[in-house]
Amino acid sequence: MRFFKKIGSRIVIVGLLIGIQILWFLGFMKYLTEYSVVINLSLKLISVIAVLYLVSKRENPVNKLAWVIPILCFPLLGGLMYILLYESKPSKHLQKKFQESEERIKPLLTQDVNVRQKIIKESKSVASQVAYLADTAGFPIYENTETTYYSSGEANFPDLLDAIKSAKHYIFLEYFIIEEGTMWNTILEVLKEKVESGVLVRVLYDDVGCLMTLPAHYDKELRKMGIECMAFNPLVPFLKVTMNHRNHRKLTVIDGHTAFTGGINLADEYINAIHRYGYWKDAGIRIKGDAVWSLTAMFLTTWNGLKHSDETFEKYMPTRFDTKKYQVKGFVQPYGDTPLDNETVGENVYLNMIHAALEYVYIFTPYLIIDNEMVTALTLAAKRGVDVRIITPSVSDSKMVFWLAESYYLELMEGGVKVYYYMPGFLHSKCFVCDDMVATVSSINMDFRSLYLHFENGVFLYNTDSVLEVKKDVINALEESKLLTKEELHRNWFLRLLRMILRLFAPLL
């Protein structure tokens, strides 16, 4: 029974349909090229034009190289496959809808000038990061915000559940992965109760992220329960399928005054109710107060970009249902990143933190597939005396990605960066902490997909108690981690060769 269930699963059906289309396409092209010199030459010309277009394009050179090599290796089909399969940005239609949604909410994301002035007086280097996020990315920095850092999914879950239970007006959930099981089923029961009591509940999940975790058209099932729900960028099994751009965010907003975000999805491995790769270590953060508004605005921008409405956004602002003043120190700046523009906000936040660090930069990341700018920033920081440490998992949910990440380790170690394996299992946290002063907790991996292709979000922290909590978590994790050596990476010649090959195609993986 389980065998037939797997055969009939959505991912198998979609994969089979796409596979059939690819085989038909290759067979058809082989037939044409064998019987037509003109078509043969035309396809080669398309490949030449594709390469010229790539070279002149405003894009990361590593990404260009990843496409130029297969095009040159397969001149008959390379250019045509690039045109059919590569999408640098989502569709024009989707871009237009999101832009309209952003324009509606932008006037409500205003910066308190007094807050900016306080930061300028305290730290010019932090003020420059704040200026980038506020002026270029459009996300203000706030006071009057309480933060709580969670070093694991199981520590996060009880508070998340309690917050959802306390909701009186609305609950917004936006997640890359939702999976039926202990975690999600428990939350769902509470959501159904809330709907019955008149609370507005909206759920947004990524269709590809949930391809193997939820049944097809699960959004319809939730709507039958009274929960407003949409699947982001639904998967269509055609050859030209835009699967590159996914909604990788993880956030929950309750009544505008409380929010949760970080790396934790709504699935059982994230709270260690099941163990797929040993102990699953993740990180999350709860924020209460004014800064929640930026996360609410992110959700509303996405929701209204997918489903236009004329509702007024002011009714979702934090002060509508909570006027509490939080007597806490520090500043909080939630931010988002999208592939709809040419601004790589997630990567630039990381780069700014590395460049500004004076004493140390500690990093949690499950994946490490980075461009030359990031490699240079990390090694340069180490060469000028900054203690740069990166903790990655000792096991991975993808062997290919694991081997590819190792191709960067040697270069980083030769530059003075210390790389560690987290030995208890899979580390899924995405955190930076620097100089006991700043930190970020986010959904943003250090790989090309998160940094260039996905919708992401994070929280930049300055001088809050949670900054030191992130540092403490890293120090504790280091005690359970193994420092990687150059000799270990040189041991297997076959893996070294494989890493070289994979490195060429890093942006495509």
Principal-axis shape equals globular
CATH topology of the largest domain: Endonuclease, Chain A
Mean pLDDT: 86
**Measured distance between first and last alpha carbons:** 33 Å
Q: Look at the structure and name the CATH superfamily of the largest domain.
A: Endonuclease Chain A
Beta-strand portion reads 15-25%
Number of helices: 19
Question: What's the total count of β strands?
Answer: 17
Give the neighbour order of strands across the main sheet: 9-16-15-14-10-11-12-17
The first-level CATH class of the largest domain is given as Alpha Beta
Our Rg estimate from Cα atoms comes to 23 Å
Please, how many domains?
3
Instruction: Name the structural class.
Output: alpha/beta
- Unreliable runs, pLDDT <50, ≥5 residues? 1-8
| Helical amount | 40-55%
Q: How can the largest sheet be summarized?
A: 8 strands, mixed
CATH-scheme architecture of the largest domain: 2-Layer Sandwich
What does the model show?
This protein is α/β, with parallel strands linked by helices. It folds into three domains: 2-85, no CATH class; 92-124 and 144-329, Endonuclease Chain A (Endonuclease, Chain A, 2-Layer Sandwich), CATH 3.30.870; 345-508, Endonuclease, Chain A. 47% of the residues lie in helices and 17% in strands. It has 19 helices and 17 strands. The chain has helices at 2-7, 10-35, 37-56, 61-73, 78-85, 92-105, 113-122, 124-136, 153-165, 182-196, 218-224, 292-306, 345-356, 372-383, 399-414, 448-453, 465-479, 486-490, 493-504, and strands at 145-150, 170-175, 200-206, 228-232, 250-254, 258-262, 279-281, 284-289, 331-337, 360-364, 387-393, 418-422, 425-427, 431-434, 438-442, 456-462, 481-483. Strand 11, helix 15 and strand 12 (418-422) form a beta-alpha-beta unit.
